[in-house]
Amino acid sequence: MGLEEFFKRVRREMEELVREIEEEFFGPKPMWSTDGSIEPLITMQEHPDRYEIIIDLPLADLKSLSIEVKGRRLRIQCTLRKTITFPTWSAYGTTKFHKYKTEILLPENTDPQKINIEKIEDKNMVKITVPKKQ
Amino acid sequence: MGVVESFSVDGVGVYLFERPVLAEPSFLVLGLPDAGLVGAIAAKYASVRLNMRLVGEIDASGVLPPLSVVHRGVPLSPFQLYVNNSGRMVVLVSEAPLPAAAVYPVSRAVVELASRLGFSYIVSLSGIAVPNRMEIKRPRVFWVSSTSGAGRVMEELGLKRFDEGFIVGPYAVILKEARRRGLDNIVILVESFLQFPDPESSAEALRVLSRLTGIEIDVGKLLEEAEMLKIQARELMKQTTKSMAEMQKRYEMHMPMMYI
């Protein structure tokens, strides 16, 4: 392992540690932002030759789905079919939500350039299959 | 609204703002968060749809998070009890996940509540995670009961018994505790997602509950608003996923030792 890769790995582990400490003391981060985005629920399942990622996107317009691959990171965005608000939510009721936004860090043994994306329209879900490196 | 009666089990407090006058047969319906939030969504929906009245709450220092949920300006425990107009149904609505450390004491407190108030049945609404949920149009429903008497009631509905497998979490504890105490507990298990809110499965649970209790709960609005509900339930689902991992919820997918 080169020096650059070593420092990258240390930085990633530090980020993960900070996230865990934050969650321990302050609870999980809210899954929404004042920029009008909400974070979807995601599951990742490992198979012998691949990972299957399912993203739950209720109320999403799947035609607007965008998935950008940056190294091992998948940046996912999708607009909602309509803008939603929760007016009775006292402190944040004025926030207008109009899109999903999230980022997934793929495991190291994957080949992100060979991902397969399948839209499951009737469930408003997206299945991403990522093969493992041979 | 002051407390008129309270008791404590293993440090878990049950506080009644009024003692519900129950009519026979009476049902204590539990909507604790687990797979797909099936019970949590169903119980919350039933409490709103049937215009149920708040009669109590459950709270515990040490094992439950120190939070209060505010609805229409009223601060409440996230674990609330509501009664319907006829006094035949009380639902336990949960708006926070149950930490693993709280499972045993809260479950015992629920059984003690059912025993003290004299409910005919405890009905637990639950999801049972299936890996192919995405391909399933209408989820199947199973049941398991603490007594043969409660089992006969479910057999009359023509539903399939959950014959073999594991149940993990508060409903498992309540089932065992109820059996030991001779109380009738029915667990309604609906095929569901594990880590995504599943209002369609909640609707199935409510259809069975309607048939069991004879109290009609129209699920039309639940299905109509399913997508909005799923958005609102994401954070509870995420926290529940963490709690389920602590409880080893995936054990439900394990194969038990069976004699062929």
Structural class of chain B: alpha/beta
Please give the CATH class of the largest domain in chain A: Mainly Beta
What is the mean pLDDT of chain A? Answer: 88
Please tell me how large the radius of gyration of chain B is: 17 Å
The value of Rg of chain A in angstroms is 17 Å
Number of helices of chain A: 1
Q: Write down the secondary-structure element order of chain B.
A: EEEHEEEEEHEEHEHEHHHH
Query: Which structural category do the helix and sheet elements of chain A fall into?
Result: alpha+beta
- Count, helices of chain B: 8
CATH architecture annotation of the largest domain in chain A: Sandwich
Going across the biggest sheet of chain B, name each strand in turn: 1-2-4-7-8-3-9-12-10-11
Give average pLDDT of chain B, whole number. 93
Low-confidence stretches of chain A: none
Structural domains of chain B: how many: 1
CATH-assigned fold name of chain B: Rossmann fold
CATH class category of chain B? Alpha Beta
Report on the architecture of this protein:
The complex is a heterodimer of chains A (134) and B (260). Chain A contains 1 helix and 8 strands; from the N terminus they run αββββββββ. Chain A is of the alpha+beta class and 134 residues long. Chain A folds into 2 domains: 1-29; 31-131, Immunoglobulin-like (Sandwich). In chain A, the strands form 2 sheets. Chain A has a 4-stranded mixed β-sheet, with no helix packed on it. A 4-stranded antiparallel β-sheet of chain A has the order 2-3-8-7, with no helix packed on it. Chain A starts with a helix and ends with a strand. By secondary structure, chain B is α/β, with parallel strands linked by helices. In chain B, 34% of the residues lie in helices and 24% in strands. Chain B is built from 8 helices and 12 strands. Chain B has helices at 38-49, 103-117, 148-156, 170-181, 199-213, 220-224, 226-232, 234-246, and strands at residues 5-9, 12-16, 27-31, 53-59, 69-71, 74-76, 79-83, 89-94, 121-129, 141-145, 160-161, 185-192. The longest helix of chain B is centred in the middle third of the chain and has 15 residues, at 103-117. The radius of gyration of chain B is 17 Å and the shape is globular. The interface between A and B is medium-sized, with 20 and 19 residues.
